[in-house]
What we know:
Two copies of one chain form a homodimer.
Chain A (H helix, E strand, L loop, with lengths): L2 H7 L5 E4 L4 H12 L7 E5 L7 E4 L2 E7 L2 H4 L4 E4 L3 H13 L3 E4 L29 E3 L3 H17 L1 E9 L6 H15 L10 H6 L28 H14 L6 E4 L9 E9 L5 H10 L3 E3 L11 H4 L5 E8 L6 E8 L3 H17 L3
Parallel strand pairs in A: 1-2, 1-5, 2-4, 5-6, 6-7, 8-9, 11-12
Antiparallel strand pairs in A: 3-4, 8-10, 10-13, 12-13
Amino acid sequence: xxxxxxxxxxxxPTLAVVGATGAVGTVLLQILSHRADVWGEIRLIASPRxxxxxxxxxxxxxxxxxxxxxxxxxxxxxxxxxPDEVAAEWAPRAAALGAVVVDNSRVFxxxxxxxxxxxxxxxxxxxxxxxGIVANPRCTTLSMIVALGALxxxxxxxxxxxxxxxxxxxxxxxxxxxxxxxxSLVAGTELGTSxxxxxxxxxxxxxxxxxxxxxxxxxxxxxxxxxxxSSEETALxxxxxxxxxxxxxxxxxxxxxxxxxxxxxxxxxARFESEVTVDKAREILATxxxxxxxxxxxxxxxxxxxxxxxxxxxxxGRVRRALDDPTALxxxxxxxxxxxxxxxxxxxxxxxxxxxxx
Amino acid sequence: xxxxxxxxxxxxPTLAVVGATGAVGTVLLQILSHRADVWGEIRLIASPRxxxxxxxxxxxxxxxxxxxxxxxxxxxxxxxxxPDEVAAEWAPRAAALGAVVVDNSRVFxxxxxxxxxxxxxxxxxxxxxxxGIVANPRCTTLSMIVALGALxxxxxxxxxxxxxxxxxxxxxxxxxxxxxxxxSLVAGTELGTSxxxxxxxxxxxxxxxxxxxxxxxxxxxxxxxxxxxSSEETALxxxxxxxxxxxxxxxxxxxxxxxxxxxxxxxxxARFESEVTVDKAREILATxxxxxxxxxxxxxxxxxxxxxxxxxxxxxGRVRRALDDPTALxxxxxxxxxxxxxxxxxxxxxxxxxxxxx
Lengths: 358, 358
């Protein structure tokens, strides 16, 4: 390491990436390498079976260490992207050792004493973290909430009806490999044209999904909750309410998996306190930090996952006022579920914490 | 032809299939071959370049003739599935020659003096046809309207918010070939993981779609209308209102193309006059003609295009009461866009006309 780099990093906070070898961890290391460098040491931590591997971050090779209390010693901020049961055990242990934990599991998101933070929407919330833990919202919420937060600040949100088009990389490498395997089965065939043929071709190869995803859409993501709801649907409602500070906001959601590798899309019907105009909505979206307005259907411009994958912002297109309700807007929103939907928001929260310690 | 068949058909109405060689025409001939046979002669008509081809219907080879007034002479009911400009010219000519025309183009659907008919929902409307023309709704409308009609009859519909997941075969053979070609490009590659890579790989090969559809979802179907709306979206609203007899029903729609060969899916948020229960809704859907309730997420049961392709009914799953509104239901609806979405409904209308001449 060059001496100038070493001295520039002196006195800066130590960051740990816990879960550095996973799909989100991999993107997180890329993001940390490209954003303004505010960190001293960056420590890479993973499960014992990944210990000893070397990964690149900020142009340097860093050896991965196993998750232990020693590995967390002296860490100021720890970014966790690990299975729920690992987060449930280790996030509090890391906090007890003095780190502020930014956690991307499901464990803490709805805990009353854990803030759920989107830096563009509720940055103030990061300061009140009695357990030393800040939660990162799920990718589906993050794929739409920056745009909705900007519109809410101007118009006052009253109701949401949301349908999702969710990418397979939300289910990690297994999700992507499952879609790739199914695509190689269907390419060049007549599959998908008679009932059950896809299911027979795929056999037991549905991977983390309940049905074939190639040439199909599957109206199920998450786990079964009461009354037929999926965990993804109820969580999208609960997280949106918490982030927007609207605990009674009506939110209707149906979540659907689509054969896209990366980048979630959502249709949103958003009703506001009073009459809205498309011109004002477009002005808000065009200037909101973290949002790109891409909305000129006459020129063929509207966001799709293929445009959006690998980029940071929330992309918004198809902005229309509801035909029968002057207080409602229709939107098509699109964002990279691994970047803003996971790794980027985690990194942004860490930067907020570093800039404004509690 | 066996003598018994010939004599059984004597005195029955003569049916013409105009557009017999297209994607919908092909399905229509299969459907006519499998439904109860109420027809005398079935005449197959297409463009001059298809004249002389032989196609199978009811187990017989029938020669295709070119669309002329002679070909329509003596026809009682003519099913039209042809380009809009052909329908605009020839449907009135066929009607003037004495045929009742059942037309699947966009030309007549919203005309005040042309009924728009779904036999399970508004069969009575078929009797009032001052121009001798009955219109068939578009596939997107037909993929949901039978289920919604049944719920409306019980609960009284007050508002719809709909998002679509539309199959490529809606764009005919060119749509299917485009998806197949794109799939053969992406299978076994890393395409779909960096911005613009799909677009570069596909080049000009987007066929009838504005963007790549393989590994993507595209929030655009139809043509551009006022204020950023697509023709598919405004038509889904207008046709639903006309079929349900609710001319002021608020309907919010966003239409999205997905990489599925055949079978449209839609998410529906439906608000009714007063409180609804899931038990009652399920009872209605389980017994409604033309509807299959397939809704047991605990057993992995919900409809997907792969289940539904090649079948006749409207499949409904994910039936939930809105979390924040006891008067609203959430549904996931799925139907074959070539069968009930086009050919089957046309055949059903023809049977209605044959059973009850005006």
